[in-house]
Amino acid sequence: MLGEKALELIKELDRSKDGQLPTFNEDSIRMVLEEMTTLFEQNQRDVNATVAGDVRFFSGVHLRHAALERNKRCLLAYLYNRLERIKAMRWEFGSILPAEIRANICEPEVQWFSRYNKNLAAYMRSLGEGTGLDLTQDTKPPKNLYVEVRCLKDYGEFEIEEGDIVVLQKNTTHYLPMSHCQHLIRQGILEHVE
Amino acid sequence: MSDTEEDVIEGSDDEGEAMTASEVLKKLEEAWITERMSPTLECHQSELVDCMLDQINQMTENLKRCKKHDFRLAIHKMEIDRIRYVISSYLRVRLEKIERFSHYLLEKEANMTDETMAALSPHEVAYAKDYAANLESHFQTLVLQHVPENLRTFDSAKMSIKPNLDSYIFFKVKQETPGVLIEDDTGEGRDEELDLQEGSQHLMRYKPISHLLHSGAVTLI
């Protein structure tokens, strides 16, 4: 059926859970592109026939054109929604993607990601007349200055304000300033104990 | 806001501006709520943001001079954290919208005649442009250059996401505004005229009241 493969692509992405990213499906994309080339060639043939005076095939041209448009739309939607997920990960994990994610994205997506990073960093630097503000911090309303955190991995020495140093060892708990340990919580080194 | 808060701010407010820091903060908080509730991007408030960022930097400097175990220190730090949260949350919401509606906003920006109505700040324009260009070049590399010739263009008018200006919003009236025209979009001519009374709250489509929002006569809740 026309456009079936393209729909499958969209479904595949839709079925994978939020925040997960299936492998970039190059094969399916290639098949959709091939289908489009075939449709286009058939259309050109029929258009030439129509121009020559034979109008019997003209409704077929319309149908194929609609299928072409639909395929294009599905492909772009597939790309766009993948980028949306990669983008969400930028805000969650920072500018370096975890290895298991990197395995699932293709080269142009890596390039897109690095340009997105650069753009975002430039914007955040420009805030406050050049002093900059990291928007990926402070994602939740602050309730307390200090939070109780449990250490999930050995991290070593960690400097909090004015030269105070704590040693973060696995399975120890600490009472630390929220503003300093946010990024460690995000990286999974510390865990917030409620 | 606490009185102690004022002490820290007063020492630094030497720019001779008409607004005090707490007024700026109040305005910024209002802009923040509006931005979170509005279906589209509102006018940028980068002056308020810059002013407030400057304030918290100065407050942080001032606090360094305080004694370490002064109990006021904790309160001030908490206040700084709160303000910083408001600012970053506000800018995050904006960035999200700028990314989603980048083509729409850039087009609007290009047709803009009145500087004061600019939705995007210069930095945001740069960001939106690069974002849109990045997206298009990604489409180009992976799909568009491989499809048949007549389909190779990326038609942003057809393909990009636009904000839904017909979505409903809650708002509160700050200034009495008589005779607001609510047009009937179904084309049946059932236009209505409405007097908005100060302090009253309404649920209405965004479009008819968007100009009141810009003039500050109403605020979103």
Automatic annotation (TrEMBL), chain A:
Required for correct functioning of the GINS complex, a complex that plays an essential role in the initiation of DNA replication, and progression of DNA replication forks. GINS complex is a core component of CDC45-MCM-GINS (CMG) helicase, the molecular machine that unwinds template DNA during replication, and around which the replisome is built. One of its GO terms (biological process) is DNA strand elongation involved in mitotic DNA replication. Keywords: Chromosome, DNA replication, Nucleus. Residues 143-193 form the DNA replication complex GINS protein PSF1 C-terminal domain. Gene3D superfamilies: 1.20.58.1030. Component of the GINS complex. SUPFAM superfamilies: GINS helical bundle-like (SSF158573). Transmembrane segments: none annotated. InterPro entries: GINS_A, GINS_bundle-like_dom_sf, GINS_Psf1, PSF1_C. Pfam families: PSF1_C, Sld5. GO terms for cellular component: GINS complex. Belongs to the GINS1/PSF1 family. It is found in: Chromosome; Nucleus. Its main location: nucleus. The lineage of its organism: Eukaryota, Metazoa, Ecdysozoa, Arthropoda, Crustacea. It comes from Cherax quadricarinatus. This is DNA replication complex GINS protein PSF1. Residues 56-127 form the GINS subunit domain.
TrEMBL record, chain B:
One of its GO terms (cellular component) is GINS complex. Belongs to the GINS4/SLD5 family. Keywords: DNA replication, Nucleus. It comes from the Eukaryota. The lineage of its organism: Eukaryota, Metazoa, Ecdysozoa, Arthropoda, Crustacea. One of its GO terms (biological process) is DNA-templated DNA replication. CDD domains: GINS_A_Sld5, GINS_B_Sld5. Residues 163-221 form the DNA replication complex GINS protein SLD5 C-terminal domain. Its main location: nucleus. Residues 67-141 form the GINS subunit domain. It holds the Pfam family Sld5. This is DNA replication complex GINS protein SLD5. It is found in: Nucleus. The GINS complex plays an essential role in the initiation of DNA replication.
